[in-house]
Amino acid sequence: MFKLMPEMTWLWPVSVKVPSEGGFIDQAFRARFRLAPDELRYAIGEARTDQELQQRTAALMSAALMEIYDVVDEHDAPVALNDVTRPALLANPLILRGLTNAYVQSLTGQPSAADAKN
Questions:
Q1: For 17, phi and psi rounded to 5 degrees?
Q2: Which of 100, 94, 96, 77 is nearest to 86 (CA)?
Q3: DSSP readout, 36-92?
Q4: What is the pLDDT of residues 1-28, one digit of tens each?
Q5: Could you tell me which residues come within 8 angstroms of residue 66 by beta carbon, excluding any fewer than 6 positions away?
Q6: What's the pTM value of the predicted model, to 2 decimals?
Q7: What gap in Å lies between CA 78 and CA 71, rounded to an integer?
Q8: Do the bridges between strand 23-34 and strand 65-69 make them parallel or antiparallel, or are there none, so unpaired?
Q9: Residue 116 has what pLDDT?
Q10: Angle CA(46)–CA(48)–CA(52) in degrees, nearest 5?
Q11: Residues ≥6 apart with Cβ < 8 Å to 113
Q12: β-bridge partners, 23
């Protein structure tokens, strides 16, 4: 049975590839997403430059991203999503790519990064 909700939200794993010693390390966290407005999703396809694409992608993720889990700072203290951490996360191209990939996977029915490993 499908449950129609005023706002659909979902939890999804996010994988971030972090450069390390000539390779990459996969780091993961979980994010709660909501459906972003159509105009933000469509605006990505209208970007003319790489900078504009990154700005529009960050705007989309800012609207879609509700919460983060399993994220800690350099002192291993839990990090919550707020007005300070949201812009910092979205300004990091590695994290922005991971969030965007996870969001697209969740909307298109592609397996999550966690599913792909199993």
A1: -90, 115
A2: 96
A3: PPHHHHHHGGG--SHHHHHHHHHHHHHHHEEEEES-B-TTS-B---STTHHHHHHHS
A4: 988 888 889 999 999 999 999 999 999 9
A5: 9, 31, 32, 33, 34, 81
A6: 0.87
A7: 6
A8: antiparallel
A9: 58
A10: 90
A11: 13, 14, 15, 26, 28, 101, 102, 105
A12: 20
Question: Are the C-beta atoms of residues 98 and 104 closer than 8 Å to each other?
Answer: no
Q: Are 98 and 65 in contact (CB under 8 A)?
A: no
1, amino acid identity: M
Q: CA 32, 106, 42, 97 torsion: positive or negative?
A: positive
User: Has residue 113 got a pLDDT over 70?
Assistant: no
Q: Report the C-alpha dihedral over residues 97, 102, 103, 105, rounded to 10 degrees.
A: 120
**Token code pair at residue 34:** 């909501």
- Calculate the alpha carbon distances from 57 to 40, 70, 104, 107, 112 in Å: 8, 23, 11, 15, 19
Q: How far apart are CA 39 and CA 74, in angstroms?
A: 36
